[in-house]
């Protein structure tokens, strides 16, 4: 095994393999068995495992001759490109570990990522008999994120162990199984209030009716799962009776997108995703929002308006907790996309059916009740951190042209 370390520069790999391929009368024929390379902040680490073959393709018995040849190769490479090359016996074939289920991607996110989060994740993986096979950086802005490839761990046990690390360190740790399904996602559904936009529209409307505190208490209880959503929605809408219709325009004009929202949507659209919103809010707000963002679909409740004023009632079917899941399924069917290729993002108890119906449900800055039941959770203030959970690096996001700083 040859291990090359030093400043990364053009030509190192070419120099090494060129020297290995140079055949003289006293040098064995070298076969490459394995190669792994990583560059960390400009520092190269390159590992190469080789074996020697005789002319008829059989391994020679004279290992010292191979080691002597590789030492000469190491000296040539060090002199030519200024890196360090160490040579050691690989000790024969390494037995493959007995797999336990499928490997997993573990994504650690934070701003910043504290060392104790990585240490805790590593200890948790080892504690359940897993192994970290590889680590790569996904992003350094707006959050720092690293992806660990973990083998030998069962899904539920791994999520439980890492959930405890996330709670203790304040970092976000997401877990997904390795496989083509991760990169085959093709549709994303976003909740609106406190997910796509900051704050709750119903609270803004209630403030204009002079009932802000009362409605905020009901909203909080509903999002925490303490009240039936449909019942709480009707109670909150009732206090809006008499408000002029123009108030809806005022609230809509003052909506503030969650940072990273445009980057998330633009990136996924350019990667071929169908993107839309499913909200327990109101079509008078969500439909224009969806149009302005170029979304493919939208579903929400509709406030009844008579003679230019809100009546305090709703029109049509209520988009409640089961209604959100039905809407996701309806849009997936409309575009011919299997549910296991869908993503849902939300923060409240009324999002849970939708989150668990999707192939990947992400609780975004969610209530504890929701975080515990979703597939994974993000507590960063940036919506485009969803892209890292999906496995996209910052370079890939920039290549897709979706980055829009601050939004």
UniProtKB/TrEMBL annotation:
Reactions this protein catalyses: O-phospho-L-serine + H2O = L-serine + phosphate; O-phospho-D-serine + H2O = D-serine + phosphate
CDD domains: HAD_PSP (cd07500)
Protein's UniProt keywords contain Metal-binding: yes
Protein name: phosphoserine phosphatase
Entry-linked Gene3D superfamilies: 3.30.70.260, HAD superfamily/HAD-like
InterPro entries recorded: HAD-like_SerB, HAD-like_sf, HAD_sf, PSP, PSP_ACT
Cofactor(s) required for function per UniProt: Mg(2+)
GO cellular component, one term: cytoplasm
Keyword hit for Hydrolase: yes
Organism: Blastococcus saxobsidens
